[in-house]
Design goal:
Helix content: 40-55%
Distance between the termini: 56 Å
Number of strands: 8
Number of helices: 6
Radius of gyration: 24 Å
Oligomer: single chain
Strand content: 25-35%
CATH topology of the domain at 82-172: PH-domain like
Structural class: alpha+beta
Largest sheet: 4 strands, antiparallel
């Protein structure tokens, strides 16, 4: 019985290995590295206040900022997703495997449900588009984010043409808005807080609890957040 069972499994593995499969993997390692860097920085800042029973105002601020950065880094790691797409032309379907520390999900999507393979262009400079993202659009209007991107437009466009050729759908290379990523928000928010803290220290005076009240904090941090977000999205 065990020999027959092993033989059956082996036949299935050989049959699957002979099947033509296209594999597309996300490249979200930079988000994971960013979250890890935030965690290490937060731990370092918290360690500066460890063992102190009577914290000064400066140490209180370092503690709060370290705690925020630690939580932001932890959230980035938890929300970071790895996407693997397996395309089976003979089956007429593709499998989307999404995994993160929060869990995993597997979806099987038939080719008939796919409307197009989209190449999303993000950011413009005098040299051209800054980054290209590969998405899959379903006929229901849903967007499947492959999390695959590159600064090389030829790479993503070639990948899109190959994928659409296997599926039998059109390729949409028109510019489209790309959703803001969590990492971009965290970087912009952290930068806005750091800029405001530095601005207050050198232009107003020593740090205190009152520095977080009034109209100055939201105005300065909002302007700084917007400026940093624009720079981050242009360079992403």
């Amino acid at each position: 019985m065990r020999i027959l069972l092993f033989g059956k499994i082996r036949q299935e593995v050989v049959r699957e290995s002979e099947e033509r499969v296209m594999r597309i993997e996300s490249n979200t390692l930079k988000n994971l590295l960013l979250g890890t860097g935030f965690v290490l920085l937060g731990v370092l800042m918290l360690s500066l206040t460890q063992g102190k029973t009577d914290l000064s105002r400066d140490h209180q601020l370092i503690y709060l900022m370290g705690l925020f950065i630690l939580l932001a880094g932890t959230a980035t790691i938890l929300l970071n997703e790895r996407v693997v797409i397996l395309v089976y032309p003979e089956r007429g379907s593709l499998t989307v495997r999404t995994s993160s520390l929060r869990g995993s999900e597997v979806r099987v999507i038939p080719f008939a449900a796919i409307r197009s393979v989209d190449v999303v262009k993000l950011g413009q400079t005098h040299k051209g588009t800054r980054s290209y993202h590969l998405n899959i659009a379903l006929k229901t209007g849903e967007k499947i984010l492959t999390r695959r991107n590159s600064r090389d437009g030829d790479e993503i466009n070639e990948l899109a043409r190959e994928l659409s050729g296997l599926i039998g759908c059109k390729t949409d290379e028109a510019p489209a808005p790309q959703p803001i990523e969590l990492g971009q928000i965290l970087v912009s928010l952290s930068g806005a807080i750091l800029v405001y803290v530095a601005w207050y220290r050198f232009t107003v005076g020593p740090w205190c609890r009152a520095m977080w009240f009034g109209t100055a904090p939201p105005v300065v941090m909002l302007l700084t957040f917007t400026a940093i977000m624009l720079v981050v999205r242009r360079r992403s």
